[in-house]
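Budget justification note: compute hours in this period were largely spent on complex prediction jobs such as the one shown. Inputs:
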Amino acid sequence: MVRVRFAPSPTGPLHIGGVRTALYNYLFARKNGGKMLLRIEDTDQTRFVPGAEQYIVEALGWLGIEFDEGVHVGGPFGPYRQSDRKPLYRRYAEQLVADGWAYYAFDTPQSLEERRKAAEAQKGTFQYDCTTRMSMENSLTLPADEVRRRLDEGQPYVVRFKFPEGVDITVHDMIRGEVTMNSRLLDDKVLFKSDGMPTYHLANIVDDHLMEITHVIRGEEWLPSAPLHVMLYRAFGWEDTMPRFAHLPLLLKPEGNGKLSKRDGDRLGFPVFPLEWHDPKSGEVSSGYREQGYLPQAVVNMLALLGWNPGTEQELMTMDELVELFDIEHVSKNGAKFNVDKARWFQHEYFQQLDDETVAAMLDDQVRAHVVEAGHDYVLEVAKLMKERITFPRELWDTCRYFFVAPTEYDAKDVAKRWSPDMHIHMQKVIDILDTVPFEYDAIHQALLEDYIKGNGLKMGSVMNSLRIAVVGRTVGPDMLTLVMMLGKDETIKRVKRAIDTITV
RNA sequence: GCCGCGUUCGUCUAGUUGGCCCAGGACGUAAGAUUUUCAUUCUUAAAAUCGCGGGUUCGAAUCCCGCACGCGGUACCA
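Corresponding output:
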C-alpha cells in the first residue's frame, strides 16, 4: 500500500513550488491507489506563523488536492501536527544515544559561534563532525558522571547524530538514480534541540516510519541531507521499511537565476501563492492565483507540466487525466523557470471551457457592481458572444461594459484614424436608416452596408468603425450589427446622436 | 571553500535500449488568412552547431573523461 505525505512547515503562505510538491505527491498516491496525508511540521516555534496551517489546508482544498489523512481530517496515525507529537520524540533521541548513534552536546550557541569565527580567521570553516567532536563539550568528551550531573541539573543540551567515519552512503532516488556521499563530509546534525523539540531530521524520520510512509517525494533542497536520513533509518533499525525517495527539481525565477522566492511574484506581475496572503505581522498583502481569477484546474495543469510531461504531446489534462498519466520517472531532473505567459494560456483554455451560464453569472455580478439601474436582461447573450476574448473574469466588465452603459468619451486615436470630417453626415444617415428600415439584422444590413455604404462607394472600414466609435467608444468589439440589434434602436440612435454632437474633427 | 545536483529553440520540454533527429511539440514572437474593427480562430515562418573540449563508434543529444557555468546544501530553519 502506497502512503505518501505532504509535510509543510507553517511558516507562512504555501509557495507555488510547495503546491507542486503536494500535487506530485497527490498524483502519485492516486495513480498507485495509495493514501495521501498532510502532516504539519511545526517544530520550529520561533518561525511559527498563525494562520499558515489554515492557509495550507484552504489552498490545497481550492486546487482539488485531497487528503485521506491529516491534521484537518484526522486518521489512524495521528496526531498529524508535530507539536502535538512532541512527547514522543525524546524517547527516540535517547534510544539513539543509548545505542551509540548519537550523543549529548552541551556547547552553547556562543561557544559554537566562537569556533566558527576562529576557523574563519584562518580561512577555514568549522564543522561539528568526526574531526572536531572530540574537542567539544559533549558526552563523548566529558566523564559519564559529569554528563549525568549536567543532565540532572537541567543544563541545556542537544542531541547530535554521531556520523560514523568514512562510510559511503548511497541514496536511491527515483528521479536521479544513485547519489552517493561520504560521511566524512557530513556534520553531526542536531537531532533534538535544547527547547525539547526535535529538528526536522529526527521528527521526519520518526513520523514517516510511524505513519508507514512508503515514498518521500520532496524538493531538491533536501537531497544533501538525504544521506543523513538514510543513516537514521539504519540507526533505528528501520532500513527494511525505509521509504523510497524522489527529489523534485526546483522552481526557478522567470528571469535571471535562482529559486523562485516569495518576493518575485508581485515584482514580476504574477502570484507565487495559490491564495492571497495577508501577513499578520507586517500587514503586507501578497497576491494569489485564486484572487487573480485563475481557475484551479488551470493552475493545477500548469504546475503539473512544470517539471513533468506525459511523454506525449498532450498538454491539457484534467486532474483525473493527470492521475492516469502521471509517472514519477518522467519528472525532469533540472529546475524549471516559471513562465507567466504559459500560465495565462492555460487559464484562457480553461476559461473557454466554462459554461456560458457560469460566465454570465460572473458578468452579472460585475454589471450590478457598476450599473445602478437594472433592465439589462441579455447578460447570458453577452457572455456567449464575448467569452472567447476573455482570459480572466475580472476582464469581463471592461470588455463588455458598452452593452450596459453608453460611452462617455471617445478614443482619440481611433477617432483620428476613422472619423473623417464628413462622418457627421454619414452618421446622420445611419440614424435615418435605423429609424426608417425595419429593425431587423438583414434589413439593416441591406440598407446600411449594401445600399448606402457600398452603393455610394464609401469606405466600409471608415463608416462602420465610426459607428463603432459612436456606440462603443473605440474600435473594438463584436460584429457591429449584432451589437446594434442587442442594444436596440433607441439606445443606438441615442449613442450615435451624442457622438455627432460631441466629436469634433 | 567543500559536498551534491543539473546543463536540448527566449521559456516549458520530446528525445528512455546510440542510427527513423541536419532534433519534434507547446507558450511566446513574426507574417498571412478570416472578421467592417479589436480579440478569437486558422495557416506559415523564424528560433537549439543538443554548455564547452576531448574520446569510443561505421554512426552520439544519446556512452566515457575533463572543464565551464548554474542551482542547492553546508543552522539548536524547514
